[in-house]
Amino acid sequence: MRTNIQRTSGSMRVRLKLKPGQRGTKHLLKQYGDRLFCVRYRYDEETKRRYTTVELIVEEEQWEPPRFKPDDIVLVKIAYDELDLRQKIKDAGGRWSRSAKAWKLPYKTALKFGLKTRILDE
Questions:
Q1: pLDDT at 3 over 60
Q2: In Å, what is the CA distance from 75 to each residue of 1, 60, 95, 102, 122?
Q3: What is the residue-averaged pLDDT of the chain?
């Protein structure tokens, strides 16, 4: 295994990305086992070299995808007497929804103002 790799200022191109078990990955699969996620063959035209790189899984944990995307419009409950907060929401482009009796604003804005717990389920 080579350890003294000369990297150039130019970029290396990826020509091939393989999943574990495909031809060209079997020896690496033996070495890394279930941790192997993918193998890439990178080519450096400046130095005329090919590099084999691997992507390994180093940690696994439970994860829940976010309910909303940053630009999704959400409904947020703001108390009538929270005048400063209402004004901030108005200034940020929030709009009052008469039918929902809540403020409509982008999810990222709700997070910015710390209102995640006030988002209503639609």
A1: no
A2: 56, 33, 10, 6, 8
A3: 91
CA–CA dist 48, 65 (Å, integer): 42
In this predicted model, what pLDDT tens digit does every residue of 48-102 receive, in sequence order?
Answer: 999 999 999 999 999 999 889 999 999 999 999 999 999 999 999 999 999 999 9
pTM for this structure?
A: 0.55
Sign of CA dihedral 80, 84, 103, 90: positive
Tokens representing 17?
């990305």
DSSP state of 40: E
Contacts of 69 (CB under 8 A, 6+ apart): 107
> CA–CA separation, 51 vs 48, rounded Å?
10
pLDDT given at position 12: 87
> In sequence order, which residues have a C-beta less than 8 Å from that of residue 94 and are 6 or more positions away?
76, 103, 104, 105, 109
CA-CA-CA-CA torsion for 103, 105, 108, 111, nearest 10 degrees? -10
Q: If you compute the radius of gyration of the chain from its CA atoms, what whole number of angstroms results?
A: 25
